[in-house]
Write a structure and sequence with these properties.
2 helices; single chain; extended; two-stranded antiparallel sheet; 80 residues; 41% helix; alpha+beta
């Protein structure tokens, strides 16, 4: 069994409400699970950013409509 470590976070009211919404809308069993999943997604996006990718294309499977999401924090710093 993997070693686990207990971590305590402090959230302002708005951030806590946001985390609670993520938990509920994502149907996560706990806020900890929502945070773990969010970290995995963030890490995957960072990995792509390190390879030069900075946009995400999302598609509505029913209408086939596509949108591009640009996440500013994923833009790799330009080398000077």
């Amino acid at each position: 069994m993997p070693k686990t470590q207990r971590v305590i976070f402090s959230f302002d009211e708005r951030s806590l409400d946001s985390l609670q919404r993520i938990k509920e809308e994502g149907r996560f069993a706990s806020m900890g699970e929502a945070v773990r999943e969010s970290l995995q997604i963030s890490r995957a996006l960072q990995s792509q950013a390190h390879q030069g990718f900075s946009e995400i294309v999302v598609r509505n499977p029913d209408t086939k409509e596509e949108r591009v999401i640009v996440i500013p924090t994923l833009h790799a710093p330009s080398s000077k």
